[in-house]
Q: What sequence folds into this?
């Protein structure tokens, strides 16, 4: 039988309270979070969900979009085993798989018919990051899908898995009442990486538009701060001057305008960087769906843009040189500043915000790359504390095969 490859395209995307992977429940059904399944335009006919309200639960088949381009290994280290013991990839639910496809069972709460988006499914218990593509939806059939006698392998052995949670009233008052139970459940699941057990460390995660800071001491998660999930910079006069927000569809026109400015500047420098149709409007729209692009904003004006990636970058697998670290890292891409905002330190503040997000997610380094001839960017990177590590070649997109200078910043 000949080898065949399937070409799937998403039927929908999910809107959830998790803009990054840190804090996402390790399995579906563990946390009572509410999410929305928004269908792609070609699937927005009301007929596609006819009869779906007769079911209480659904199977979602979805893609680990943040794992695109990642390599897989025959064995992995399940977090439930402390990150020390290896198991076969097909004996786990690790995202690092030959085909990065996930399966989740969610409870269907209701169906809403919206003028602009068609039928939207409101579900509970999803373990998906905001913007995750969904490839198929199937009804859960208890008489077929439920097997109470089934054995759960190593998961049965470590079934008791949770923390006590302490949230001071002054912080709990900052959380909408409908989100308080879910926040407590997330912290009970211990969202920290399995290899990080430092009781002195303060961790941070974004949930439902909030930035939650906590420490774990003697089996208890102590919340030590909750605020709106946007970072505000303070100017020399102590006034609020800049904040960072997650890009949305209404920002894409301005993002394309700033990108066009950057492309013209690079062309003026005689560089071929960003001269092959990248980044395009489609790239920004895809970023918006994934929730991975951030905007520097001041008094309602967008000053700069950058994408923040928390999964391994396929372009960084091989380097003519040596990275400063060998562990997990975050990376920043598509960094650009509006012409009228250059010279005001916007890029440096974006780098600082990227460093802060990386640290909150448990990373110890941030990587980035730029064109060998882009001296202004190289100077900006070195000013921000990045160290030149060598040369890499881009592995994807219109610029695949082009050489770039690779930098890394240890946090």
A:
């Amino acid at each position: 039988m000949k080898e065949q490859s399937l070409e799937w395209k998403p039927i929908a995307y999910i809107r959830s309270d998790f803009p990054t992977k840190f804090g996402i429940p390790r399995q579906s059904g563990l946390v009572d979070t509410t999410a929305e399944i928004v269908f792609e335009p070609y699937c927005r006919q009301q007929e596609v969900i006819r009869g779906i309200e007769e079911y209480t639960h659904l199977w979602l088949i979805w893609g680990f979009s943040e794992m695109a381009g990642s390599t897989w290994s025959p064995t992995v280290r399940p977090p439930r085993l402390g990150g020390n013991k290896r198991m076969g990839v097909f004996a786990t639910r690790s995202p690092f798989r030959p085909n990065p496809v996930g399966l989740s069972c969610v409870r269907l709460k209701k169906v809403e018919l919206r003028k602009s988006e068609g039928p939207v499914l409101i579900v509970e218990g999803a373990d998906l990051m905001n913007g995750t593509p969904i490839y198929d939806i199937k009804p859960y059939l208890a008489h077929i899908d439920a097997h109470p006698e089934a054995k759960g392998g190593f998961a049965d052995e470590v079934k008791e898995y949770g923390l006590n949670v302490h949230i001071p009233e002054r912080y709990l008052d900052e959380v909408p009442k409908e989100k308080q139970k879910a926040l407590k459940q997330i912290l009970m699941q211990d969202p920290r990486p399995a290899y990080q057990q430092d009781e002195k460390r303060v961790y941070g995660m974004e949930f439902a538009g909030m930035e939650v800071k906590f420490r774990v001491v003697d089996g208890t998660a102590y919340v030590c701060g909750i605020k709106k999930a946007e970072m505000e910079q303070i100017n020399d006069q102590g006034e609020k001057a800049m904040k960072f927000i997650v890009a949305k569809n209404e920002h894409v026109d301005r993002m394309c305008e700033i990108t066009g400015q950057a492309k013209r500047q690079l062309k003026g420098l005689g560089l071929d960087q960003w001269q092959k149709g990248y980044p395009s409007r489609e790239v920004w729209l895809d970023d918006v769906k994934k929730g991975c692009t951030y905007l520097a904003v001041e008094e309602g004006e967008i000053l700069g843009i950058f994408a923040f990636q928390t999964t391994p970058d396929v372009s960084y697998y091989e380097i003519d040189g040596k990275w400063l670290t060998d562990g997990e890292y975050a990376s920043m891409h598509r960094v650009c500043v509006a012409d009228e905002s250059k010279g005001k330190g916007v890029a440096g503040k974006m780098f600082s915000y990227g460093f802060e997000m990386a640290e909150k997610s448990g990373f110890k380094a941030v990587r980035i790359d730029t064109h060998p001839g882009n001296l202004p960017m190289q100077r900006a990177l070195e000013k921000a504390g990045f160290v030149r590590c060598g040369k890499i070649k881009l592995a994807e997109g219109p610029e695949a095969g082009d050489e770039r200078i690779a930098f890394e910043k240890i946090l």
